[in-house]
Amino acid sequence: MGKRVGMEVSIAAAEAVALIDVDVVAAYPITPQTHIVEHLSELVANGHLDAEFVPVESEHSAMSVCVGAAAAGARTFTSTSSQGYALMVEICYIASSMRLPIVMAVVNRALSAPISIWNDHSDMMLARDTGWIQTVAENGQEVVDLLIHAYRVAEDHRVLLPVMVNLDGFIVSHVIEPIELPSKEEVQKYLPPYKPLLKLDPKSPVTMGPVGVPEIYTEVKKAQDEAIKNSKKVILEAWEEFAKHFGRVYKPVETYRCEDAEIVILLMGSIAETAMRAIDTMRERGKRVGLARLRLFRPFPVEELVSVLKPVKAVAVIDRALGFNGYTGPLCAEVKTVLFNHALTPYVWNYIAGLGGRDVTVENFVEMVEMLEERAARKEPMGYEIINVRE
Amino acid sequence: MIEVRLHGRGGQGAVTSAELMALAAISTGKYAQAFPSFGPERRGAPVMAFLRVSDTPIKTREKIYNPNLVVVLDPSLLAIMNIEAGIAEDGTVVVNTQMLPEEVKEKFNLRSKVATVDATTIAREILKVPITNTTMLGSLVRVSGAVPLESLEEPIIARFGPALGEKNFSACKRAYGETRLMQ
Questions:
Q1: Nearest partner of B51 among B97, B81, B7, judged by Cα
Q2: By the CB < 8 Å criterion, does A6 face chain B?
Q3: Looking at the partner chain, which of B32, B38, B61 has a beta carbon nearest the beta carbon of A273?
Q4: Gap between the Cα atoms of B1 and B31, Å rounded
Q5: Does B65 touch chain A (CB under 8 A)?
Q6: Which residues share a beta bridge with B70?
Q7: Which residues of A touch B26 (CB under 8 A)?
């Protein structure tokens, strides 16, 4: 049976990876790193996890080891953040193109300069087009659950893609909170042993990741694009099965008090919890506000977003990274594409909030909704702004 | 929900205090969050740690701006910073000092209620070191009533091992009894 424990979320993530019984963990063990791989190295060293822990010399090498190990048929894991993630990105593209079911926890943090170790989604946006399936956790429980879910999806022969589980740096990763940690038996029942479709084997040699000449490159990319599109079905199935096994229900887009909402706050990650508190306050004052949180970021949950946003008059899209294109944050750009494709025309304002560890408060959410209403009322051309800037 | 801010200096264990309280609360079925003030850690520099304890799931990732309780592990901090910043109207400051609560309130011109305990002496006598983080937990429990005192025993022993853990819990219990509240 599972048990309810108080635990730092990074430690719980490592415990989940041990329950999943991975074969290889490769990680660069210094800044920007978290307790996730520190604790995994302890679990391997003290015999609680029978795995190969490879302490490499850079994140680029960490992902390279994962690629090699996964190609040889191992269940692999790594974790990184910010600058380390940036260094890893080159190989992230290779992992997804080679259809290797690697799972990585990304502890979301800002990118330099200025040097920052604090939370935002700049690193998530840096790697948004790497071809990985990406989920985003709200709290420690989701980190554990999404990691378990990630392997079931990644290793499904209908998918065979790597999966990233994103969690907010510090405000999730470093917090001690209550978590239901399942037992190993429960996890093993949900997650069968990994059976590779193809693997590097001297007895039956194959080539993986060769040159793609112009005659074949497009077809390979088309196949990869189809794979991530088709992964949605398996992602949903795996969440349905998860609910049956563990009792917790997950959907691509989580909503809160959206039933009769005229205004929706749309965001990703743990600040959803603060937003819910703000929504409760606004609801008490009679304001019909709801929350939509993307749990699934790649593939983009189009149908779910359309059904949430269809009846809505105005949307506040919260980005936690800049796009540096002079007109929109990255999440808002995608939300607007969905709206345009489905001929939906709510008023949309894009807020850039919580950069480099700047707190996003209940009061901030209330103000963002008020400003959204004012702008919509005076039909201000839609745009974006960075909130909470000290003048 | 109660919100607590702990002030100490790097190395005094303020973060561990918050963690142990959260673990105790969670073990009794409550909800809790404990977190450090995120940033580089430097021994001896003023540091803060934060704690929320609630009977219902905690829906927020904000920092703590208006704590109900402020715990001061190192009394030298009272003279160099506003430890009452943002404290709730009916908030209480819990200070490790030999002084009486009324004396602290007057000397540092505090507007809040004050509780004191001579945690340094208790820690020196029982633990043989002036590290007061587990000792101050006794006072925090006494003033807040957030968890039963006994619920701290298991997390303290899990953290420090049986022998040292028992000593730390003894110091915690003694501080619970010796905490001086304002009349």
A1: B7
A2: yes
A3: B61
A4: 9
A5: yes
A6: B5, B93
A7: 4-6, 177-178
Question: Is it the case that residue A50 has pLDDT exceeding 80?
Answer: yes
Supply the pLDDT for residue B39.
73
Angstrom distance (rounded) from CA A249 to CA A242: 7
Cα-based torsion angle of the residue sequence A385, A391, B5, B7 in order, rounded to the nearest 10 degrees: 140
How far apart (Å, rounded) are the C-alpha atoms in residues B69 and B5? 6
Please give the ipTM for the structure prediction. 0.94
CB atoms within 10 A of CB A52: 14
In angstroms and rounded to an integer, the radius of gyration of the C-alpha atoms of chain A is 21
Mean pLDDT of B86-90: 97
Mean pLDDT of A67-71: 98
Beta bridge partners of A180: A4
- Contact indicator for A106, A113 with CB cutoff of 8 Å: no
| Cβ proximity of A172 and B33 under 8 Å | no
- Name chain A contacts of B23, Cβ cutoff 8 Å: 6, 176
Angle (CA) A246-A250-A255 rounded to 5° is 140
Domains of chain A (ranges plus CATH)? 3-246 (3.40.50.970), 253-386 (3.40.50.920)
Tokens at A279, concatenated: 């929504």
pLDDT given at position A30: 81
pLDDT, chain A, mean: 97
Q: In the structure encoding, which two tokens stand for residue B65, read together?
A: 């701006």
Neighboring chain B residues of A359 at a CB cutoff of 8 Å: 62-63
A330-341 vs A302-309: helix crossing angle, rounded to 10: 80
Q: Which of B37, B47, B62 to mutate to test the interface with A (most CBs of A within 10 A)?
A: B62
The C-alpha angle A307, A313, A317, rounded to 5 degrees, equals 75
β-pairing, B2-9 with B31-36? Answer: unpaired
Which residue in chain A is spatially nearest to B50 when comparing CA positions? A175
Instruction: Tell me the per-residue pLDDT of A264-295, one tens digit each, with 9 for 90 and over.
Output: 999 999 999 999 999 999 999 999 999 999 99
Query: How would you class B44 by CB atoms within 10 Å of its CB: exposed for 0-12, middle for 13-18, buried for 19 or more?
Result: exposed
Please name each of the domains of chain B with its CATH number.
2-181 (3.40.920.10)
Relative orientation angle of helices A271-284 and A362-377, to the nearest 10 degrees: 60
Average pLDDT on B147-161 reads 98
Grade residue A161 by pLDDT with cuts at 50, 70 and 90: very high
Closest CB from B35, B59, B65 relative to A273: B59
The pLDDT-based confidence of A252 (bands split at 50, 70, 90) is very high
Residue at token pair 């079931």: A152
DSSP string, B159-180: HH-HHHHHHHHHHHHHHHHHPE
CA-nearest residue of chain B to A361? Answer: B62
Residue A31 has pLDDT above 80, yes or no: no
Q: Residue A1: pLDDT above 80?
A: no
